[in-house]
Amino acid sequence: MKTLRLMGVGGVIAYRALFNWTTPGMFVGTLLVGPLFQLLFFAYLGRQLQVADDRFYIVGNAVLTASLACVFGGTMAVANERRYGTLGHVLLSPRSRTAIFWGRVIPYAGNGLLIAVVTLGVGAALLGLRIPFGALPGLVLAMAAGSLACGFFGLTLGALGLRFRDVWVVSNVSVALLLLLTGVNVPASGLPGWMVTVGHYLPITHAASAARQLAAGDGLTAAAPALGQELLVGAGYAVAAVALLKIFEGESRRRASLDAL
Amino acid sequence: MGSDYAIEAEDLRRTYKARTGWLKPKRTEVEAVRGVTFTVGRGELFGLLGPNGAGKTTTIKLLNTLLIPTSGSARVCGFDVESQTREVRRRIGYVFGGDRGLYDRLSALDNLRYFAELYGVAPRDQKRRIAELLDLVGLAGREGERVEGYSRGMRQRLHIARGLLHSPDVLFLDEPSIGVDPVAARELRRTVADLAATGTTVLLTTHYMAEADELCDRIAVIADGRIQALGTPAELRHRADGRRVVEVEAYGVPESAVDALRGLPGVRETAVEARGALQLLTVHSDAHVDVQGDVLRELAGIRLGRVDSREPTLEDAYVAIVSAA
Amino acid sequence: MSLLRVLAVGTLMHVKQLSRSPFEMAIALVVPIVQATLAVYLFRSGGEQHRLLEAAVGAGVMGIWSSVLFGSGGAIQSQRWLGTLEMIMLAPRRPVLVILPITIATGLTGIYALLATLIWGRFLYGIRLDFAHPVAFVVAAVVCVVALGMFGLLLAATFVLMRNANALANTLEYPVWLVSGMLVPITVLPSWTGPIAAVLPTTWGARALREATSGGPVWPSVGVCLGISVLCLALGGLALTYVERRARAAATLALA
């Protein structure tokens, strides 16, 4: 219970302290309007090139939009801690680091979910896509799974930030790579095999395909395997992030490079 | 030119407005400079001395066109700082302390080339001028290195070289020796003195007494946004005439003991300065009253270090002026 | 003459300063290549294999826009963070002469994106660089970069007045790609976007480069692109004068 509280309350406080985008203008502009334009861009590109239908683009990109908040959020959760010189103090805490850092992911994932839901709603309304009412709970579930997986993915990138100076390069490039490799914008059949394979180990890929099945009215049972895979990917990153944090923490204590920027 | 003064400031005032919070925006106003008037003659080395937050930097920025006065006016070389900015800027140099304000990934040479171009140094003079200045500030030979690898002192010297590129008539130096090691600070003072000797008007802000005492023809002590005293170092020292100073090193002096000292007959001012675990008590008294005995009596039971009774210095005058503000 | 010198030296120095940032370079080179890869597979999936060179050029132009949007939009803010804003505004020059080199530099560093996508396309995907009008392509690329630099000045001057300029910049990347038809002209867009596209210099710059790549009149597009940009420069110059005055009044030149 105490650990849960540490994860919840600690996570929210860290979110407010470390997330750079919490002013209303920044939030609306970067996290709501920006992703919506991204969706429109690919949807119109898809229409123009006749690659796939609107549902493919709208649903896929809506799920993907969660990645922006989650990847950057996860990176900020660790990297800004270092920038503000507070990382040492956090690591000095006797509490479980695993709980501390996992807790940080939750607000970002919630944020990502909110963005994905808004983007899907507005995008579908603007482009005239009908989504069966009964599919909505399942869709939210798929988006939540994608957001959570993405949050842990972001935390992994943030952990890498302890080791590498230019962690923002990594997160910027990762966000771009997700556009390509998750099969959200190019159908898997159009991508080379190795890219599809890499995509399987990335967040969003499975959540997007589950969401597409749901939006097509296939029902939760049909989408369940993909949903499960997404959660598995997320769990993988959750473990990887904590492992990396442990390794780098030990390493930086030995080399005294913890707060050296 | 039509003006005998390099700098004329008349009742300068500057208010900062700030807005904080977005849910319930709060507006706050801070009066940083509250009516500053002075003149600096051509070729004079003039010091603005005061504690942090006294309004020194604001005053400099009002004079060098970076800020518009809330009210009052100022002229540099006879040109109005608010409306004739380009005329003013052609004639001034500005150097501030600290290590920001340079292009880190460029070499010193590139930094100087860029600013020489911006500040309107004639192309045919640039090479010679830059070489001269690199020599002057002792960076010759290192000019090809990127600034990101420079020490704080080197950056500071590069700042100075930049401020002098266009041979300004008036040089504004804002805390130039902040964070510079003592040896470099001494060289810096020599450079500034040389500049003044060759006819450049210098306005220097500092909170280092010795620096102001050694360099300045005249000093204005500024505190609380107002000029509290203005004169030559010797004149300011006279402010402490008729006083005697007792200095006591002590450990753990309670507030009540300091208040008691203040009440002693003949005592004019007291000041406490924390230096780590140690506190330095300074007691100003009338020169003809020997208060040392009384002071020690009041401090009985407190662990004491060195005790000293001496003639007042410029620093004591400064303390007297600032604490009276 | 002296004006040109100020602009040239300023641009060179800012290009140097930007090009030596590992962060800027990594973003400028890697992200456009990812975008170009995406474009290639999109084009292939859409049965447009013969237009892959257009995809590479288009992704490069997208990169130029990103560079100008973030670089110029944040030009004044980043100078403020460096602590150099006060020093450059103290120059006895018109503000436009001080800021324009910075925004043109962001356009020039955007060229890295175009070069990267072309080289990547050539070597990884064997895209043959047979431009319909090679000379016109080079001219159009240079004009496009300078023109976007001028447009960048307008962005720099107006963004600095906004409290949420970063948010605005983050918002404007995709819609300009979309409306200007950088990757492909989008004929299926709603008709009301037409006038917006017509006044954006990005539309004409992208169009000129596409015409030089796969055939078309090129020069009219180059001319319109330049004309609009000069107008932006004039507006940006006026705005900057106002901005400078306001900054001196509000004490926002230095980092608070």
- Provide a count of the helices of chain B: 11
CATH architecture name of the largest domain in chain B:
3-Layer(aba) Sandwich
In DSSP terms, counting alpha (H) and pi (I) runs of 4 or more, how many helices of chain A? 10
**Strand count, sense and closure of the main sheet of chain B?**
6 strands, mixed
User: Helix and strand succession of chain B?
Assistant: EEEHEEHEHHHEHEHEEHEHEEHEH
In the sheet with the most strands of chain B, the strands line up as 6-7-8-3-9-10
How big a fraction of the residues of chain A is strand? Answer: under 5%
Q: Compute the number of strand runs of chain B.
A: 14
What is the beta-strand fraction of chain B? Answer: 25-35%
Number of domains of chain A: 1
In which range does the helix fraction of chain A lie?
Answer: over 70%
Kindly report the greatest chain-chain contact and the residue count on each side: A-C, 37 and 36 residues
Structural class based on helices, strands and sheet pairing of chain B: alpha/beta
The portion of residues assigned to helices of chain B is 25-40%
Report the end-to-end length of chain A measured between terminal Cα atoms.
36 Å
CATH first level of the largest domain in chain B: which class? Alpha Beta
Distance between the ends of chain B: 37 Å
Poorly predicted runs of chain A: 1-11
Count of beta strands of chain A: 0
Q: Let me know the average pLDDT of chain A.
A: 82
By CATH, the topology of the largest domain in chain B is Rossmann fold
What does this structure look like?
The complex is a heterotrimer of chains A (261), B (325) and C (256). Chain A has one domain (2-255). Chain A is 80% helix and 0% strand. Chain A has ten helices and no strands. The longest helix of chain A has 36 residues, at 220-255. The two termini of chain A are 36 Å apart. Chain B has helices at 56-63, 85-91, 108-118, 123-136, 152-164, 182-197, 209-215, 233-238, 255-262, 292-298, 314-324; strands at 5-20, 26-41, 45-49, 71-76, 79-80, 92-96, 170-174, 201-206, 218-223, 226-231, 243-251, 267-275, 278-286, 303-310. In chain B, helix 6 (182-197) links the parallel strand 7 (170-174) and strand 8 (201-206). Chain B is globular, with a radius of gyration of 23 Å. The termini of chain C are far apart. Chain C has eleven helices and no strands. By secondary structure, chain C is mostly helical. Chain B binds chain C through residues 16-17, 61, 64-68, 86-87, 89-90, 92, 94, 98, 100-106, 110, 113-115, 117-120, 123, 146, 162, and chain C through 2, 5-6, 9-10, 13, 16-17, 20-21, 82-84, 86-93, 98, 245, 248-251, 253-254. Chain A: Pfam families: ABC2_membrane. Chain A: Residues 25-213 form the ABC-2 type transporter transmembrane domain.
